[in-house]
Amino acid sequence: MRALVAVLPGDGIGPEVTAQAVRVLNAVGQRFGHRFECRDGLIGGAAMNAGAAPLPDASEALCREADAVLLGAVGGPQWDDPQAAVRPEQGLLGLRQSLQLFANLRPVAPHPLLHDASPLKPSLLEGVDIMVVRELTGGIYFGDKTREADAASDLCRYTVGEIERVVRLAARLAQQRRGKLTSVDKANVLATSQLWRATTGRIVGEEFPSIELETLLVDAAAMHLLQRPAEFDVIVTENLFGDILTDEASVLAGSMGLLPSASLGEGSRGLYEPIHGSAPDLAGRDVANPYAAILSVAMMLRLSFGLDAEAQAVELAVSDCVSARVGTVDLFGESGVSTTQAGQAVITRLQEKRLDTVA
Ligand code: IPM
Ligand code: MG
Q1: I need a surface site. Which of 72, 121, 216, 308 has the fewest CB within 10 A?
Q2: What angle do CA 211, 216, 221 make, to 5 degrees?
Q3: What is the pLDDT of residues 37-55, one digit of tens each?
Q4: Is the pLDDT of residue 96 over 50?
Q5: Which residues line ligand 1 (CB under 6 A)?
Q6: Domains parsed from the chain with CATH numbers
Q7: Distance between CA atoms of residues 155 and 141, nearest Å
């Protein structure tokens, strides 16, 4: 197949990890006979430094034209002035909204060999395989905001339609997995959460009767995620709760540098990005973990391009690297390799694998 991929490296370690992910994408193209045309665009602080808006028109147009978007990370101390009206993060939020990417998929399945890398007891991590579906274009992130000298407010608003579409997507995923859906809210306090809970119950009851639905308050969910992570299958939740819970869930995987994500809308176009941030302290040193960005490419291959065998080949190559204890310092400490070497290790495994073993 042929596809156009918009690449928005962004800030901090973004350019370094996306560079490896693009190399992997090209290696997949060569190996499997596809042509992925990658075109770069500016976003976030990098765009602001170039005198443009955090989401320049040219980047937005490129993403609209593209079949998929690969993004690195946005933000950093350079732009962290709390008084600033324009921030790098607005680029990412604007893009999610502009492309109507209402569902953010964040899989968390710790590699058995990395159980020691997590502060949790290895026995708790046995069999953990969670898919968090975070609502991405509504809620408190996008409600009206006010700021006065001595007061500020953020409006949290959800419509039934916004809840229905993300719950349907999550329930469909649960159907393809272990058939369990956990909806997380704060329905004992928030009106939006009461609407969320009622809508979720109705949609699952009417359209997905075979799905086992569990509802949890977000404070309890934060605890259960560490106490009994293996019992979760698909978790669906609103924008802010999903942001917080997925950082927490990344602790299960041993490193934030391992977790990819896909942001999807109604069509096949998606935005793929690691869940980690721009990690300014690591930037420019060739030490950041590229696996989350590379695994984001795997999600792109599967979810935007329907290339399942290719996606699996990438995932297997990363998993083989981890099994061989080839990875960056966040995973393997002193025996860690560089960002570039980790990317190359994945490519080498992709090239070596017999095709009939990955289909
Ligand atoms: C994430 C990030 C973003 C978010 C920031 C950079 C705006 O934390 O993708 O999880 O809060 O959504
Ligand atoms: Mg976050």
Answers
A1: 121
A2: 115
A3: 999 999 999 999 999 999 9
A4: yes
A5: 74-75, 89, 92-93, 243, 275
A6: 1-99+269-359 (3.40.718.10), 103-266 (3.40.718.10)
A7: 8
Phi-psi region of 67 (alpha: psi -120 to 50; beta: other; left: phi over 0): alpha
Predicted pLDDT of residue 329: 96
Start-to-end C-alpha separation, the chain: 17
Distances (CA, A) of 5 to 71, 88, 111: 10, 22, 29
State the catalytic residue, choosing from 40, 129, 154, 247: 247
- Residues 6+ away with beta carbon under 8 Å from 30: none
Question: What is the band of 117 on the pLDDT scale with cuts at 50, 70, 90?
Answer: confident
Long-range (24+ apart) CB contacts under 8 A made by 326-330 are: 327/289, 327/291, 328/257, 328/287, 328/288, 328/289, 328/290, 328/291, 329/287, 330/255, 330/256, 330/257, 330/289
Around 33, how many Cα atoms within 13 Å sit in the side-chain half-sphere? 1
Minimum-distance ligand 1 atom for the alpha carbon of 247: 10
Q: For the full predicted model, state whether its pTM sits above 0.70.
A: yes
| Selected catalytic residue, list 80, 219, 281, 308 | 219
pLDDT, tens digit, for every residue of 173-211?
999 999 999 999 999 999 999 999 999 999 999 999 999
